[in-house]
Amino acid sequence: MKKRVITGIVALCVFAPVCIFSGTWFFGVAFGIISLVGVFEMAKCLGLKKNFALTIPMYLASLGLPILRYLIYMQGISKPNSVFLRYAMITAFILLIYSLAYIMFGKNKKNISDVLTFYALSVYTIGCFSSVVMVRFTGTELHKDIGAYMYLLIFISAWVCDTFAYFVGRLLGKHKLIPEISPKKTVEGAIGGIVFTFIALVGYWCIVNFAFGYEGLSIIHICILGVVLPIVSQIGDLIASSIKRQYNIKDFGNVFPGHGGVLDRFDSAMLVAPVLCFTNAIIFLF
């Protein structure tokens, strides 16, 4: 526990500059690097990290796409998320064709399921971390800087839910949630995570609205997200747990001692980011 607390403090100190400089190139580069490490951890999990012919193109995409989203923002392009998604889909298709070609022509033959699993999980990882950058550099005609306030919802919802689901589960947990995937998670903990995340997001809205005088975030929108995002956060956590159980590993990496790797630390936040992109697209019609 002591190691986890110390690592958590260090991680917070590292993450703070990312937030402080979130409006600059630093944010895109930071999440490009995080995405790169995440894909490397997936390759390691699947036993493919030494297959450079397969992994290097995916590493380049994982680093490049989050940075590309920032560059599109810098160009002042209309509907930047739509433009970025076109590039992302083209990249994903090219990588799929490349992966299939690797299976057919690669000297070190690999099971097709391993290669395509790596492709799918890498696209998932890259898409999720790119979505963080998409949310940060999103704006509307009325509120061009809304992304500066909205991207924090990703991490608040994920980490508050994770923290309170853990403590509520330990105090009140009696009914197992999905024991075959995560034996320690309980229904009571899951409900506690949702309740406290809802409170945290409403509290965040109050701070932004009343303390900073920013009116771009709708309380109705926040209330909807206060229910949806913690549920999605826990699904993301369970997805990561399922992958680790499938490949019989405890952690994806050891970047954060006591917390595991990048994917262990961001597993809850990863799925929240694209879902927040989708809800924004529906609500704001961009």
Characterization of this structure:
It is a single chain. With 286 residues, this protein is mainly α. It has two domains: 24-136, no CATH class; 142-286, no CATH class. It has helices at residues 2-20, 25-45, 52-74, 80-105, 112-136, 146-150, 152-172, 187-211, 219-246, 262-284, and strands spanning 176-178, 182-186. A two-stranded antiparallel sheet has the order 1-2. A hairpin with a 3-residue loop joins strand 1 and strand 2 (182-186). Helix 8 packs antiparallel against helix 9 (219-246) and helix 9 (219-246) packs antiparallel against helix 10. The longest helix is centred in the last third of the chain and has 28 residues, at 219-246. The N and C termini lie far apart (44 Å). The model has no long low-confidence stretch (mean pLDDT 87).
Provide a concise account of the structure shown.
It is built from 10 helices and 2 strands. The chain has a two-stranded antiparallel ribbon with strand order 1-2.
Strand order of the largest sheet: 1-2
Give Rg in angstroms: 19 Å
Can you summarize the main beta sheet? 2 strands, antiparallel
**Portion in helices:** over 70%
Distance between the ends: 44 Å
Our estimate of the beta-strand percent is under 5%
Order of helices and strands: HHHHHHHEEHHH
